[in-house]
């Protein structure tokens, strides 16, 4: 039994409670009242992105040894952050499964399944925590992706705030999502001799799934916000 599982369970419960209370903390505008669960879901996702993205940056700053050894180094704070993220992705998986039709959410459900398996390995084995933390840098871009959804639901598309967020969203997408995933794929390829076959297979399949999904999303963002 791994103590990390307690953190996962606690995180699941905490994000579930946050999701339930968000409608009082951030009441939905009239344009979002038809889809209250999604309003709560996006704000919950935004909270996780701020926590995990900021935590990943802080982790590499406070523990420089993580960047030198992505496999064996596992400071308690970094390990807990990965476990917290597993709890969030489990909560979000359940939330979408209960409130959204499968044909509308299958891409995200599939994405979450891959992340839960990969991060779960890091939590249970106390290995690859640094690699998981690199993956969490992607959440820095997710902050602006979620803000974009919030502005869309609030019917604030034709505002300076939306345009500014679109530019920042695109820039962080290239730096923290596409470049990060490319770097992770390269690291896996260069270190294939040092990673057990089963773990290497999971990581490779994960990258093979994530990369095209993110390229497609990038194209959709470009088409929607810049070439519409």
Structure description:
- With 228 residues, the protein is mainly alpha-helical.
- The protein is built from nine helices and no strands.
- The chain has one domain.
- The protein has helices at residues 3-25, 36-62, 65-68, 76-99, 102-125, 129-136, 138-153, 160-190, 197-225.
- It is globular.
- The mean pLDDT is 92.
- It comes from Dicrurus megarhynchus.
- InterPro entries: TLC-dom, TLCD.
Nutshell version of this structure?
With 228 residues, this protein is mostly helical. It is 82% helix and 0% strand. It is found in: Membrane.
Task: Name the average pLDDT.
Answer: 92
* Fraction in helix: over 70%
Beta-strand fraction estimate: under 5%
Structural class: mainly alpha
GO cellular component, one term: plasma membrane
Organism: Dicrurus megarhynchus
Subcellular location: Membrane
Domain TLC: 34-228
Q: What descriptive keywords fit this protein?
A:
TLCD2 protein; 9 helices; 228 residues; transmembrane; single chain
Blueprint (SSEs and pairs):
Blueprint: H1 3-25, H2 36-62, H3 65-68, H4 76-99, H5 102-125, H6 129-136, H7 138-153, H8 160-190, H9 197-225
Helix pairs in contact: 1-2, 1-4, 2-4, 2-6, 2-7, 4-5, 4-6, 5-9, 7-8, 8-9
């Amino acid at each position: 039994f791994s103590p990390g599982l307690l953190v996962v369970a606690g995180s699941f419960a905490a994000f579930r409670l946050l999701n339930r209370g968000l409608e009082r903390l951030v009441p939905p505008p009239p344009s979002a009242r038809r889809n209250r669960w999604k309003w709560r879901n996006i704000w919950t996702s935004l909270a996780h992105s701020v926590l995990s993205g900021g935590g990943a940056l802080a982790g590499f700053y406070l523990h420089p040894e993580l960047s030198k050894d992505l496999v064996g180094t596992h400071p308690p704070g970094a390990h807990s952050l990965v476990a917290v993220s597993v709890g969030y992705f489990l909560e979000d998986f359940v939330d979408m499964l209960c409130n959204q039709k499968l044909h509308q959410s299958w891409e995200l459900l599939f994405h979450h399944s891959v992340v839960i398996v990969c991060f779960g390995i890091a939590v249970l084995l106390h290995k690859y925590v640094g690699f998981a933390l690199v993956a969490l840098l992607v959440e820095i871009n997710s902050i602006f992706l979620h803000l974009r959804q919030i502005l869309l639901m609030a019917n604030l598309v034709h505002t300076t705030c939306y345009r500014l967020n679109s530019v920042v969203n695109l820039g962080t997408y290239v730096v923290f999502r596409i470049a990060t995933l490319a770097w992770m794929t390269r690291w896996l390829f260069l270190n294939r001799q040092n990673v057990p076959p089963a773990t290497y297979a999971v990581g490779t399949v994960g990258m093979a799934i994530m990369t095209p999904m993110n390229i497609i999303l990038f194209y959709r963002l470009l088409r929607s916000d810049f070439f519409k």
